[in-house]
Amino acid sequence: MGASSIAVAEAREQAKALDREDPLAFTRAEFNVPTTAQIASTRLAEDSATPENDDDNKSVYLCGNSLGLQPKRTGTRINQYLRTWATQGVQGHFKPLADSPLPTWLDADAKAAELIAPIVGASESEVAVMQTLTTNLHLLMSAFYHPDINGRHKIILESRAFPSDHFAVESQLRHHGLSPETSMITVQSPFSQDNVLSTYDIMSVISTNAADTALILLPGIQYYTGQLLDIPVITAFAHKHGIFVIWDLAHAVGNVPLSLHAWDVDAAAWCTYKYLNGGPGCIGGLFVHERNSLVTKAITDPHPEEGYTNRLAGWWGNDKSTRFAMANKFHPVGGAAGFQLSNPSVLDITSLSASLEVFQLAGGVKELRKKSLKLTGFLEELLNGMSEEDRAIFRIITPSDPDQRGAQLSILLEEGLLGGVMTELEKRSVIVDERKPDVIRVAPAPLYNTFEECVAFVEAFSEALAAARKTKV
Ligand SMILES: Cc1ncc(COP(=O)(O)O)c(C=O)c1O
Q1: Per-residue model confidence as pLDDT tens digits over 147-173
Q2: How many angstroms separate the CA atoms of 472 and 419, rounded?
Q3: Which residues line ligand 1 (CB under 6 A)?
């Protein structure tokens, strides 16, 4: 690849064959893939739907790690939701409509939990579709982080955690009157220049701080490097030391198979706008293992609050049977739903559920992962096969072991090239994202990306590198 047009032609033929053999190729038609004209346009399109059968004019969108593409059925379902609201008003909360595929609004959260449960490997009662990622991390910490300055008070997180996670942890510590200097421990790799963390790196920090650590917050997939951590092994090790672990699954959910219940995960939270294609800022989700969300005392007990974990509460977490009784004694429903606060945005849930229908069509994340392994492996092979000249100025920092990554490859560019490369890719209607100072993240999503798009990316990337080299700052 790179300089040789023969190599490009061969790779394209190979990609075409792989696309033809791909049993999941059909799900691409479920998505609005922006055309090159739309990507370049500075005007609001008349109609969001892209023309059918014009694959040649599509942009190359490899940015599902940041914002997933819009499923076509999202518009259909949102319109049905709008029509319900327009014609039923408040009755939409509880009146089923015989020919509507949508649940009543009162049941929308439970229905969405049913759809998300297999994606994270949990029972329906262990998941709730609610709030947003950072809020959910705070809610989980408010319930499960009980620091004791003379005992367990530390929180362990990675040194290059996504800023929001870092802020959440720091502010939780301060909220409890603690200082990040003494109570926050960050993990970094002493060996990897790119801070790819080995399980050993993490375990040794846990061991060193085992006696006074209360909580660990780690990402399932690290946003910058794309590394997939060993969730079950790290969780088990933390449990051995009596530590509660919360996983941030922003980049893992819908991307790699998860078995949160079987892995004995304590709690986790995620967003839905990346691989789950819910739409920008769409409602998030959380998982609470069933052992952590029990409600063991009846509301008639003199002290019902002793029968469940205290948490920041709101009426939507209250037992459904007494939620509308308007009494002021909080009694949570058992399970993750008991961590809800407000009535959720049905607009958001409708959008998310539309995309989750497509996951069902695809046969679930396990099927998608089979394709994803091939797709990302193919992209990696193409990148590694680029010319010596190109290879000299970039490096893939995502682990080469497919078991240690999801769809995303993070490409570290030589200093000073990022701006130029991004501009050149955009000129060629190739959409990826950048993480400063020097990384571009490229994520072929198995629901809508093709092998041919991997070739198109590498071709454009080679041209972008050549152009950026000339204008390097
Ligand atoms: C790993 C990670 N954590 C946290 C967040 C913050 O998410 P939100 O803005 O939905 O709270 C993001 C957003 O992209 C993320 O990638």
Answers
A1: 999 999 999 999 999 999 999 999 999
A2: 9
A3: 132-134, 162, 164-165, 219, 223, 248, 250-251, 271, 284
